[in-house]
Amino acid sequence: MSSSGSQAGADAFRHLGDTVRSALSDRGFSQPTEPQRRAIPPLAAGDNALVLAPTGTGKTETAMLPVFDSLVAHRAAHGSTDGFAALYITPLRALNRDMRERLDWWGETLDLEIDVRHGDTTDYQRQQQADDPPDVLVTTPETLQAMLTGSKLRDALGDVRHVIIDEVHELAASKRGAQLTVGLERLQLLSGGFQRIGLSATVGDPEAVGRFLTGKRETDKPPAVETALDSEPPSGVDRSFEIVSVDVGSRVAFTVTRPEITPEDERLAGELATTEEMASHVRTIRDAVADNESTLVFVNTRQTAEALGSRLKKLDVSLEVHHGSLARDVRIDVEDRFKNGDLAGLVCTSSMELGIDVGRVDHVVQYGSPREVARLLQRVGRAGHRHDQVSQGTVITTDPDDTVESLVIARRASEGLVESTAIHHGSLDVLANQLVGLLMDFDDVSARAAYEICRRAAPFHELAEERFRAVVRELHSNRLCWLDEDADRLETAGGTWQYFYQNLSMIPDEESYEVYDMSSRTQIGTLDERFVVNFAAPGETFIQRGEMWRINDIDEDEARVNVAPIADPGGEVPSWVGQEIPVPAAVANEGGEIREIAGEQFARGAETDAVARDLAPRYPADNPTIESALDPIERQIESDHPIPTASRLILEAQASTVRLNSPFGHEINETLGRLLAALVGQRTGSSVGMSVDPYRIEFEVPSGVGLSAFRDVLLSTDPAHLESHLELALKGSETLKFTVTQVAAKFGSLKRYQGRGRFGGDRLLEALEDTPVYEEALREVFHRDLAVDDAADVLRQLQAGEIDLELVGEATPLGGSGSTHGQELLVPENADASVIETLQKRLRNDRILLCCCHCTEWEHTTKVRRVREQPECPECGSTRIAALNPWAEEVVTAVRAEQKDSEQERQTKRAYRAANLVQSHGKQAVIALAARGVGPDTAARIINNFREDEADFYRDILAEERQYARTQSFWD
Question: Where is the segment annotated Disordered (predicted)?
C-alpha cells in the first residue's frame, strides 16, 4: 500500500488509449483535474485504489476513464464480453439517475452499453439485463445482493473485471457496507478477481477504509472451500491498494458567525412567530441566499430543515426543503429546479452531502455546528468547483457552546484533521444475512468454507469461529438454514428463500406513513410511525416540505396520512429518531482548551475584546462572534470557579441537578453518564435521570443524593469492569430493547408481523438474552453510542490523579450554559396563545391508559378528553387510578404481579405514585401525565406550582416537554 505522488502531472491522459483520448477532446477535457492526474496512472495499470477528493472534483470520471479504456481495449483484443464487465455501486438510488446522465455520453461515444438497476427497475428491464447484460451496470449494494442469486445474472457477473464503489466512506461506517464487503467476496467466487476502486470524501484513516474496500489477501487456497463449492476460488488475488488523496484543507474557506440582533430582527420576530435571536439567524441566511446565485443551506436534522424552510418561505426566499422523508418525485423536482436556476437555495440535510448532481453551487451555509470535521468538509466541499474556485462556507452558530465547537471544527477542517471512520467489525446480524446469501448462491456449503469466505471481508477478519458457530446454530433454530453436524455442512431450509428476499438490506425496518396532499392527490413525503402514534390526529397541523399541513384522516390499514395545505404557523415539526450527530472527543477537548486559555486571560484582568483578538488569528471568525462565546467563560472566572478541561473535571450541584463538566465529546460522556446514573441509582436506591452533550453530563437526582455519590463512583469503579457495568445498566433500557427487536428481525428470530406490540420488548429481551441476537444488539449499542475504552482511560487517569476532579456546591456559569441544539426555530420560549391552544388540543386528544391500583382488575385506554374529572374504577369504585402511557403493559403487569425483582418494584412504585396523584388532583393530573416525557414526579412538580391561570399550567407542561425533547434519548 502506498500513497500516489503527483509526478504523473498533466500527462495522466497519456495512460489512456487513442479512442478514449479522442473522446476526451470531443468532451472538452484539455487538462486533467488533480484527482485525475494522481489516480489515472495506477488505475490504468489495473491497481486497486482508494481515491479521496471533494465532491465536484471529477471523481466519477477519474475512476471511469481508465475503466472505459480497459473495456475498449478488451473489446479490441477479445471481442465483446457476454456479461457485465464493470459494476458501479452507489449507496443512494438518487445517485443512479445522476450517474446515468453523466455516463451515457461516454457510452454512446465509446459504443459501450451503460444501464441502471435498483429496486424500482421494471421486470422487463431486469429480464433484458439478464438476457443481454450491459457493459457497465450502475446499481446499489442491496440490488447486488439480489443479483448474486439469479442463475442468468450469476453467469453475467462471472465476467466482472472492475468494481467501483462510490461514497465508500458512507458505506464503511454502516452495516450496509459490512454486508457489501461479504457480497464482494461472493462476487469474487464467480468472477475470479476484479479491480476494486473506491471513491470517497476525505477520511481520517485511509488505510482502514482502503482495507475495507479490498479485504484480505489470500496466499493459500483453502481446500475446504474448493471442495465445498466444486470450483476453484481465487488464490493469491492481489488485495494491495493505492491511496490517492487530494488535499482538501487548502481548497476550502470557512467563516464562523453568530449573528447580532438588529432592529430589523425585532420586526421579523413578530412576523415569523419566533425570538429575535432566531429571527437574526433567518435574516442572515436570507441575505446569504440573496448574495449568491445558488446556495445550499445544510442543517443537522430534518425537523430543523422543515422549521427553517417554512420561515424562509414566509420571507419569500426562493428556496425549497430537501431531505430523505420527502417523496422521491418531490426531491427530484427540487433538485432539477435548483440545477436549472429556478431556485436560489436548498435547505437540506445529510443526503445532499453525497454526490447528487444539483449543478453549480456558489456557497454553502451550515446552520448550527456541523459536529464533525468530515461533515463540514463534505458539505462545504460541494461549492465552487466549476471554475476551480476555493469552496466557500459560512457556519451560523446559535449559542456559546455552538460557537466554540464550530470554531474548533473549522480550524481542524482547514488543516485536514478528519475523524476516523467507525467501521462495524464483526456484525453478527450481517454475518447471519450473508450466510443465508451463500446458501442462496450454492444451495449447500461446508461450514468451514463459509467461515473462510466471510473472513476474507475486512469487517470479519477477526471473527472467532465459536461466534460463527453460534450464529449458524441460531439460523438453524430459526429454520433459515439446515446444519448437518456430522458432515459440518450448511444447507437451505424452509425459510431460506423468503428470509433472503425480505432482508436484502441491512437498513432497519421502521414503519412509516405516506403523506398525501388531498387537493393534488400526490405524495409529499413520509412521517415516522412514532410521530403519527404520539402526535398525529385529525385536525392536527405539522410542517413538511417547508409548508403547513392539516391532517384530514389517518388510514391505518394503508399506513397513509391524508392532509390539506394551510397557512396556520402553529404546527408540530415532524419528529425523526436517531439523528444526533456525535461530537468527537478531539473537538470537545479543544473547546475546553479555548475556554482555559480565555479563562487565564480573564483571570489576569484582560478585556473581552482583547481575548477575542488573541483567538482570532487561529480561528476563522470576527471579533463579535468570538466575544459572544466568551461571556460564560468570563462569568466563570468572576465567580471564582475553575474552567473544566480534559485534565480538570468539575462536579457541581444545584437543587435536584448534579452536573459533571467534562469536555470529552458525546460518546465518552454518554458512557460515563450511563455508568454514573446506574451505579449512583443502585447505591442510593433512587432513579437517576441523565442528559448528555459534548461538554457536560447532567443528572436529575432525588433529594439527599449529593456530589459525593458521583465522586465515589468515578474514583472507585474498576476501569477493567466498565463494560460489564454498562451491560447491566443497559438491560431493560428502551435503547437495547429497540435494538434487539431490529437485530432479531435480521436474524429471522422475530417475524415482521409480530412486532413489539405483539411480543413486548421485555419478553423479547429475556427470550434472546443468551443468543447471538442479544450479543449483536449489545455490540451495536456499544458501537453506536458508547466509547468504552476511552471512558475507561478517563477513569484510570482520574484514579491516578492525572485528571483532577473538583467539587462545587452550586451551578457554575459554564455548567449552566448548555447547548440548545435541536430547539432551533421551533417556537418562542414564551409560548403565545396559539401555541398553548395547540398544546391543549393535542393533550385532549392523546390516549391514556387508566389502571386501578386497588383491585388491579380494571384497565382502560381512552382519550384524555373523555376522562372524568375524578376517575374511578367501575369494578370496585376506587379512585386510586394510575394514568399511564398506552403502551405501558409492563407497568400493569408489575402492579398485578408479586414484586419479584427490582424492575417490577420500580414499575409498581411508578404506577402507585401516578395513582396517588390522580386521586388527589383528578383530571389535572391525568392531563399532566399525558404530556410527553412527564412521569409522576415531574407531573407532581407541575401541579405543585399551583398555577391559577390555566395557560400558565400548560406553559409549565410545555417547558417540561422541551426539557424532555432535549434529553429524550437518554431516559430509559
Answer: 215-236
Q: Would you give the DSSP letter of residue 883?
A: E
860 within 8 A of 877, measured Cβ to Cβ? no
Q: Indicate if 56 and 103 belong to the same structural domain.
A: yes
How many domains in the chain?
A: 5
Q: Are residues 91 and 216 in the same domain?
A: yes
Measure the CA–CA gap between 78 and 86, rounded to whole angstroms. 16
Q: Which domain holds residue 777?
A: 642-808
- 665 and 734, same domain (yes or no): yes
The residue type of 271 is E
Structure-block grid coordinates of residue 694: 459534548
Calculate ∠ Cα 576-582-585, nearest 5°: 170
What are the residues whose beta carbons fall under 8 Å from the beta carbon of 816, sequence distance 6 or more?
632, 659
> Hey, what's the cell of 387?
471554475
Closest C-alpha to 443, from 489, 499, 485, 502: 489
pLDDT tens sequence across 557-584:
778 889 888 764 444 555 444 446 899 9
| In a domain? residue 384 | no
What are the distances in angstroms from CA 874 to CA 512, 860, 863?
37, 10, 17
Cβ neighbourhood burial of 121 (10 Å; 0-12, 13-18, 19+): middle
**Digit-coded pLDDT (tens) for 517-546:** 887 778 888 887 656 755 667 777 777 766
Domain-embedded: residue 40 = yes
User: For the chain, how many helices (H) and strands (E)?
Assistant: 39, 30
Would you say residue 390 lies in a domain? no
Query: Could you give the C-alpha distances from 965 to 341, 579, 581, 940, 971, in angstroms and in order?
Result: 38, 13, 16, 19, 10
814 domain residue, yes or no: no
Contacts of 300 (CB under 8 A, 6+ apart): 349, 367, 368, 369, 370, 371, 579, 581, 821
Can you give the CATH number for the domain in which 497 is found?
A: 1.10.10
pLDDT digits (tens, 9 = 90+) for 753-805: 354 444 556 778 888 999 999 999 999 999 999 999 999 999 999 999 999 99
| Distance set, CA 197 to CA 107, 302, 663 (Å) | 19, 32, 39
Helix residue ranges, H only, 707-787 = 707-716, 722-730, 734-747, 755-758, 761-768, 772-785
29 and 145 in a single domain? The answer is: yes
Whether residues 70 and 23 share a domain: the answer is: yes
Question: What is the DSSP code (8-state) at residue 458?
Answer: G
> Which of 755, 773, 808 is at the close of a domain?
808
| Cell triple for 161 | 473485471
Return phi, psi of residue 356, to 5°.
-65, 130
Look at residues 502, 534, 557 and tell me which one is the last residue of a structural domain.
Answer: 502
Q: Pull the grid cell for residue 536.
A: 398525529
> What's the grid cell of residue 823?
430547539
Which amino acid, residue 510?
E
Asked if 102 and 189 sit in the same domain, the reply is: yes
First and final C-alpha spacing in the chain? 46
Print the SS3 string covering 203-215: CCCHHHHHHHHHC
Least confident of 186-200, 235-249, 633-647, 711-725: 235-249
In this structure, the answer to whether residues 516 and 553 fall within a common structural domain is: yes
Indicate whether 493 and 517 sit together in one domain: no
On whether the CB atoms of residues 729 and 682 are closer than 8 A, the answer is no
Backbone torsions φ then ψ of 544, nearest 5 degrees: -150, 145
Q: Are 868 and 892 in contact (CB under 8 A)?
A: no
**Residues facing 846 on adjacent strands:** none
- Determine the distance from the C-alpha atom of residue 879 to the mean position of all C-alpha atoms in its chain, rounded to a whole number: 45
d(CA 620, CA 254): 6
Name the pTM for this structure.
Answer: 0.78
